[in-house]
Amino acid sequence: MSKRFASLAGAGSVALMIGWAAPAMAQTSPDAQAAQHEEADSSLQLEEIVVTARKREERLQDVPISANIQTGAALERGGIANLERMTNYVPNLTIQPSPGVPSLYIRGIGSGPNNPAFEPSVGLFIDGLYMGRGRQTSGDFLDVERIEVLRGPQGALFGKNTSSGAINITTGVPTDERELSASMTGYVAGDKGIEATAVASGPLTDKLKARLALRYDNREGWLYNTAKDHHDPKRENIQGRLTLAYDPSDTVSFVLRTHLFDYDIQGDFFSTAPFGAKKTFTRATTPGVDEFDRGHGANIGLTTDIQLGGGYSLTSITGYSKFTYLRAVDSDFAVDPFFTTQFGESFWQLSQELRISSPSDGIFNWVAGVYAHRAESDNILAFSSISLGALDGTSRRSMDQKTDSLSGYVQGTFRLTEQWRVTAGLRGTVEKKDAIFIRDVTGSPPASWLATDLTGKIDETAFDPSVQIQYLTGPSMFYVSYAKGSKAGGFVAASTAVQQSGFAYDGETSQSFEVGAKLELFDRRAQLNIALFRTKYTDLQVSAWDPIANATLTRNAADATSKGIEAELTARLSSPLTFRGAIGYLDAKYDDFPGALCLYRQTAPAANCLENIGGTRIPRAPKWSASGGLDLDQPVGGNLHVTGNFTVSYRSGIFLDDNLNPASYQSGFAKIDARLGIGTLNGGWDVALVGQNLTNKLTSSYALGTPFAVNTESFSIDPPRVIGLQLRLKY
Questions:
Q1: Which of 19, 260, 503, 643 is 20 to 30 A from 321 (CA-CA)?
Q2: What stretch of H or E contains 18?
Q3: Looking at the predicted structure, is the pLDDT value of residue 4 above 70?
């Protein structure tokens, strides 16, 4: 990595020097020099980014949190259509697909994909609503204004299940003026198909505004299934969001968002390879055996803001969410028709948050609130069927789970002097869960497929404090922080092998120390943000696939530590050219993990083998991750401009399987994405050529030992080179 990083850093330094030197070389006289300098200073300054990471609008550079911000415009420039695509652009962030449910990781820590009932260690929030399941946000982004990736525990303000961090998504709001826009991208190589988005926004009356966003995706898939003679996974998704903003007076406002989605996926993205064989963009599964993932759902949120006078405000966020899905997997990942599985769930949640905020311009400002949450999974379903020699049977598992959570929080910032600020926060949470797990088997299944029914109850209390000290000098800010996070305990769903003693697992906690700086340089033409962190996890929840028992095991690791550094640089090199770069170094290890599945050493571990794997690196946590790129916006002629984006992303080598099987090791790689377009200066139209993974790197983000197939490994295969043509219109 050192040579590649040195090259990237060197290229960035040269670009910075050239960009800052160019305006000076163009000046010819003292008067002209002064005039040009004044004009350049204004035009070359970076735009301020406003975030809501602390429950109120603030400049990113004033917030003492390591945060990566992706604006809607940046997402569109980079062709980042979903969270999985963000992995290449945000250091120390990993979005992991799997046969079960997708998982989020920040700084190497997250919740594994093998337990459908797992709540994430990385909390996901959309317009202030907590999304406790990945299926609540199925599909690609729709009309996103901004995504905030908040690294490190966020328990004090965002609550439980943010022990590793939070992803805070803000969507578009109705505009004062009428706007109509549409975009369509036709993909002609790699993952053929189309994606189309349309947005209409504006006032309906003098007090009521509306915004309607629609999106349709139809893609062919990128893996050629040699046994079925078609590409997988074929996806067809449709979603829409209606946002209404009503302002009955100058002091009261309501925003109602209704988001509906429906998706249908045929096939899968997993491919199997014998040990030592190279992965390919092909797969072979059983003809006549369906693989699908179908679901639909709704997210509804009502935000009420009331100005109380004197700068105080009261905010209410009421949310309702539901989804239903069913997924069928050819679980042997091969042509032989001997092992299939289905997963499904019917879920709903209801939440209510009330908070009051003080004025932000006083010596002391604060925010306080309460949050209540009720969630039910009426049927977390799993059905497995096997026909392999003497093994011939089925297993049907169904779990019902209920969750009630109540918390209160407060955070205040005291301005000691013009330079010094101290912020302290605390959240207390009470959470109760209960579950019933029913299992039936027929025929002669494997001995590990149990038929016992299980029940469990959890009653937990958690307190999550945080403290930040900031020092402001000129345009820069330095900070130190401490934060505690927690994640609730839970139950093992879908497992054929879990017994009553292992049905429930404990909650996890994290404690993090961070030192950082947010620097504005060269008259705000550049921003450099740096953070050094160390996070200690206790009772870390780990869900791992056991290829020997062919079952998922979820348990608590005793201790783990994640430490490292993150740095992000944005610089305006010249009026049309902006450089963006980010790098992360991560050292994430289990400190002590007794009772873990044995690691792979030369040969596969024996059945029922357990050991203490303390001291080993956590899988799927690259030591180095980085991205760097240039954004171009160059006027040409009288009414046109050329726009472009070029990005290189890098990830160092990792093990993809929990047992550190050498067959799952993925060497470091770099990927290149680019976009080049031309359009009118006022944004009326533009057309662009977009390319992702231009060097056609074959990579994977997850692997597991292939069920009932010794000496083979199955991988989730990332998309290859994808080329498309994009057209955008705006009125």
A1: 503
A2: helix 2-25
A3: no
Which pLDDT score, from 0 to 100, does residue 246 have?
98
For the chain, the domains span: 1-44, 45-730
CB 69 within 8 A of CB 148: yes
Exposed, middle or buried: residue 451 (CB in 10 Å: 0-12, 13-18, 19+)? middle
**Rounded to the nearest 5°, which phi and psi values hold at 642?**
-100, 130
Whole-number mean pLDDT of the chain?
89
Q: 26 pLDDT exceeds 60?
A: no
Its pTM surpasses 0.85: yes
How would you label 687-704 residue by residue, b for 16+ Cβ within 10 Å and e otherwise?
ebebbbbeeeebbbbbbb
CA separation for the pair 343, 338 (Å, rounded) = 17
Residues 54-88: tens digit of each pLDDT: 999 999 999 999 999 999 888 887 778 888 888 88
Distance CA 632, CA 577 (A): 5
Statement: residue 15 has pLDDT above 60: no
Which residues have a Cβ under 8 Å from the Cβ of 172 and sit 6 or more positions away? 72, 143, 144, 145, 199, 201, 211, 213, 243
Alpha-carbon separation of residue 9 from 269, 568, 617 (angstroms):
35, 12, 27
Burial (0-12, 13-18, 19+ Cβ within 10 Å), 475: middle
Phi/psi of residue 659, nearest 5 degrees: -90, 15
Q: How far apart are CA 113 and CA 544, in angstroms?
A: 8
3-state class percentages of the chain: helix first, strand second, coil last, to nearest 5: 10, 60, 30
Share of the chain above pLDDT 90, in %: 70
3-class DSSP assignment, residue 24: helix
Residue 337's pLDDT is: 74
CATH of span 45-730: 2.40.170.20
- For residues 470 and 480, give the distance between their C-alpha atoms in angstroms, rounded to a whole number: 7
Phi, psi of 366 (to 5 degrees): -150, 165
